Amino acid sequence: xxxxxxxxxRPSDFSQVSGQEHIKITLKNELAQNKIAHAYLFSGPRGxxxxxxxxxLAKAVNCENRKPGESEPCNQCSSCKAINxxxxxxxxxxxxxxxxxxxxxxxNIINFVRIRPVNAKYKVFIIDEVHMLTSYAFNALLKTLExxxxxxxxxxxxxxxQKILPTIISRCQRFDFKKIEAVAMKKRLLQLASTEGVQVxxxxxxxxxxxxxxxxxDAESLLSQLLSLDEKVLNLAQxxxxxxxxxxxxxYKLLELLFKKQLPEALLMVNELLSDGLDLEAFLKDFxxxxxxxxxxxxxxxxxxxxxxxRLADIDKLLAFVSVPTLLKIINSFxxxxxxxxxxxxxxxxxxxxxxxxxxxxxxxxxxxxxxxDKPLEKVVEVSKDESxxxxxxxxxxxxxxxxxxxxxxxVQNDGNPCAVNLxxxxxxxxxxxxxxxxxxISLASLMSVAGLRQENEKLLVIFKxxxxxxxxxxxxxxxxxxxxxxxxxxxxxxKVGFAVDANVVxxxxxxSQGDTSKNDKKDANFLEILGVENAF
Length: 537
Description:
Blueprint: H1 5-8, H2 21-32, E1 39-43, H3 50-62, H4 78-84, E2 91-95, H5 102-113, E3 123-128, H6 135-146, E4 152-158, H7 166-169, E5 173-176, H8 182-195, E6 199-200, H9 202-212, H10 216-227, E7 233-234, H11 236-239, H12 248-259, H13 263-275, H14 280-298, H15 309-318, H16 324-340, H17 349-360, E8 371-372, E9 378-382, E10 394-400, E11 403-404, E12 406-407, H18 423-428, H19 430-438, H20 442-447, E13 451-456, E14 459-464, H21 467-474, H22 477-491, E15 496-501, H23 519-525, H24 527-531
Parallel strand pairs: 1-4, 1-5, 2-3, 3-4, 6-7, 12-15, 14-15
Antiparallel strand pairs: 8-11, 9-10, 13-14
């Protein structure tokens, strides 16, 4: 059976360990000055060298050929060879995850620590995942850890130091391990591939670094999988046969479309990717990661994201399109998308809605979606109460393309521009709008009973009193279209219609409810109250 790379090429001395310079320097100084501590705590993310450095330290303190002032183990003496071969009787490795009780600590540590080393100078106990010990087991270990025999050294390794009792931590010399930097990781991977006689493209190394996320063991495991292809030269196309697919390129392209406000192209791209078998969850993760990278570069701390020069240059091209506050809003939107997509019956819908919301946001919080109809140019008509047969219509010669529906996410105040519709006249004939809707969707007609009207420029806004009503229409383009057609049937011309929510809006049915409303309209006006919706807000 062939060994995995991280086992086959495990570093045998301090110089071979990638990263963790602050820890290596301290340990080497202690060894050179013969000031070894009796207990160490190695804490940090997985795959960053905790167990490896623990073994090297065990070798160094017991190395038969190490001279005063030196720190590296020779790896040639019997003690070093025994540790390298995992046959050293005086180096005891314990997995705390499977030996977490008081009895395990008593049998595997406390009883053994009383016995002097067989061959070596020091008896070294390496306790991996030490945070898994129970509080009783920690307390049983406490006295021995505090005052061990002069020949005993304890090295505790953990990924979750917050779970270790403070009394244990206070008795150890603590070292916090960091994730391996991209440069150091690429150097190590290149060295391993070269040793195996394989040439690896730089793009493949970048991909390995990206997916390992600072964990050297993960990077070496992925490289092992690539070497199983038995190719002398590994390029990106070959690597993608085995490695998880990277979505950085697609994420960058979509972000570029988003910043340039190319909505149709962005929506088409998302659906084309899904048709090609895109893993939406993985894509959203990479997309949010790219947004974070852009934010870090924008804030001037790009060094913390460990990107290569080419990707940093690509990110620089996008910086001119967006500000930090806007970036924060966008990131928050797509974090929500990653959560909503898992429960949505149409997985891509939350992503599509977020793209629409971000692209058409005018910067004030109002979001407007314009969908073009395939109709000829219409004449804009203003409201006039003076005309009899069409008391809502007055012609104007300015042409405009009819665009519906407009969706406004919050109440919009009237800005004083000329109105395309006489609101007072339309309110008086609001029952006609509802009667039109009853023929197509009686529930929608009931929803419109708790709505008012406002005007923004040439856009007519239907203002719902309740968020519930707004959500029902906002999330259904078919219902929006019905409302538009109902209003057009009354005013006698096409118009731009938007939707908003405002709990203080004056309802169109307010006058009619005072005395001149028909029986059916009164039922409509009370429909939501009967259902108990009124009390839900």
